[in-house]
Structure formats: C-alpha cells, structure tokens
Amino acid sequence: MSSTVIRDPNDADQFSLDRLRSCLLQAGFSGAGNLESYDVEQMDATNASMYKIRLRPDAPDVRLPRSLILKVCRSQEFGPSEVYYYGRDYRDADDIPLLACYDAAFEDHAYHLLLEDVSDSHRNSWELSPDSEYAAQVAAAVAKLHSCRWGPDRIKEAGYPEMDTSQLDRYLAHVERGCAPLLEELMQEGRHDLAAVARLVFDKLPAVLRRRIRQFPSLCTLVHGDINPGNILVPKSGSGGSVFLIDRQPFDWSLLSWFGPADLAYLTVLFWEPENRRKLERDLLKAYHQVLSGRCAADYRWEQLWIDYKLSAMQCFYVAASWCIDPAERTEMRWLWRRELERAVLAFQDLQGGELLNAAE
C-alpha cells in the first residue's frame, strides 16, 4: 500500500501512469507494463469523491482490468478505518466479501482507495425488495466477514480492543445525548405511546448490554457497523455470484468489537419494511448462524444468537437518538429518525423486547 494520499487524480504529481502501473504490478497483473494510458471520469457521490479510472493497454489481449474505482475521502469525522478494512484487517483471509484493493493511504484526515470496479456486474441493493435468496446471500457475506475476526484474540490481532464495557460506555456517552431531545419531541407530538417504549429501552438496555458483555465476553467480532442496502453490492443477474460489503466508516464513538447480529439487526430493523423483516429475519439469522458455525464459532448457540439479535434490535433506538443530538440535524433529519424510531418500536413489540428487558432484572 502507498504512503501518499491521492487527493486529486488529475494532478500528475499525485497520480500518474507509473504509479498506476506499479499498483497493478504489485497486485499480480503481469500486463501492467503494457498500460499505455488511462482516463479519469468523475462519478456522482455524496460523502466522497469517486472516479472511474479507465485503463488503456497497448494491445487488446493484455491481462488488465477494464477499469478501477478511485475513492477519495476528506473528512474530520472518519479515520483510517476504511483503509484498514481493505488493506489490513482481512488481508490474509480467504473467501471474504470485499472488493480487491490495489492501493490505499491515509494521512491528515484524508484517504484514498484504488478498488476493483464491479459496476458492470453488480449494483447496490436499494431497489431490491428482500426475499429469501437475498437474505441468504447477505447472511453468508456477513458471516464470512465476521468469521475472520471472531473472538477477542482475533480482534486484538487486527489491532482493535476486545469487547468490554468501556467501549460501550464511550458509545453511550455520545448517543445518550440525543435521548432526552427525542423523548421531548415525541411528547410534544402527543406520541406518548412511542415515548413510553423509547424511555423503557433507554432506561434498561444499558445494564442488560453490560451484563451480556460480562457473561459472554468471547462471543463477539469486529463488526462493520453500517450494513445498509447501499453498502451491499449484489449481482445484477439476480442470482449466484459474489456479494460485496463496502464502505466501513465508523465514527470515533462507534462500537467496533461487538455482537455479530448487530450488523444484521441494523439492516433488518432500520432499512427493511417491517413485513419483510418479520418474514425473513429468522431465516436470515439461521443462515448466518450456519455459515458462522461452520467457519469458526461452534460454541455460539442459536439461543444466544437470537437474544443478541433482540438486544441489537433495541440498539436501533440509539440510532434514532443520535440524529437528535444537534438541534439543526434533529429538524433536518426528522423524516429519517422518526421512521427509524417507528420501525424500532415495531421490532421491539414483535420480538417481545419488554420481556427480555424485564427478565434481565
């Protein structure tokens, strides 16, 4: 991997034919020396600058990709996590749902990634209505990712702290700043029913999570943290083929070493329609458990995984609360956090969250 961040691919001092050839050669493309030229095409993107790099070899039969994707991110919010995601954390793993990365660097709150381009064969899953095949694909992809860093030892090998209550405390110190404003908004709306459920979760869930950490400290993994339909690339053909999980960009307060089912609950509770979640969540988790158990986690009982999923579903209340910390964001993103809250309440009711919280007392 490189030590110099590419901020502008049109600047020859930052990005050049020689640099591109070197990256491809290190990646095992013997035809890198036959790369004659390349074109840079800026793409539409929201949170980063994205470029398609079209490769022009000197002959049609040269073994090179047709194109690559260059992602350039400049943000005070994100550290080097995505560089580590592609270049370090899973470097020696086989059969994982990551795009190939040919170059990456981070410095001064900026980074770049030179990635495999699968846009001809894959798309994100925003427009897909989840079905059993899609659920099985996602479950397998997430399980493969989690299996590589399952348990405290494998997490620490990658340079991350093991799951403990201090990490949870840091997370709660941030998200709980939005709890009171969220409850106040609901009371002003007259939605006392929603406020009562949210208040119950905010009052009781932290102690239950701490107890779970102490009881089963080894049942954890390095989570992605943002498994949403935009970060799941699926084959355009609709069946078969690889699924890719992209864009791991945690905040400095995010949970990193955590319950594996949290990545799935984040997707099913907040992004799937409730009827799809109800229909598919158990099969999704069964498929996840089967793949995970076959690769690493034979001691992770289904009963505990199901409990972890329920706890993770309740964590989705904090996702809604996090939008309510800043007054301007609370107003601007009201359309989003209200939907997230309502879906979290439905999941709480469907999964009998109150019984779980009360039983833990």
TrEMBL record:
<dbReference type="InterPro" id="IPR011009">
    <property type="entry name" value="Kinase-like_dom_sf"/>
</dbReference>
<keyword id="KW-0808">Transferase</keyword>
<dbReference type="InterPro" id="IPR004119">
    <property type="entry name" value="EcKL"/>
</dbReference>
<dbReference type="GO" id="GO:0016740">
    <property type="term" value="F:transferase activity"/>
</dbReference>
<protein>
    <submittedName>
        <fullName>Phosphotransferase</fullName>
    </submittedName>
</protein>
<dbReference type="Pfam" id="PF02958">
    <property type="entry name" value="EcKL"/>
</dbReference>
<dbReference type="InterPro" id="IPR052961">
    <property type="entry name" value="Oxido-Kinase-like_Enzymes"/>
</dbReference>
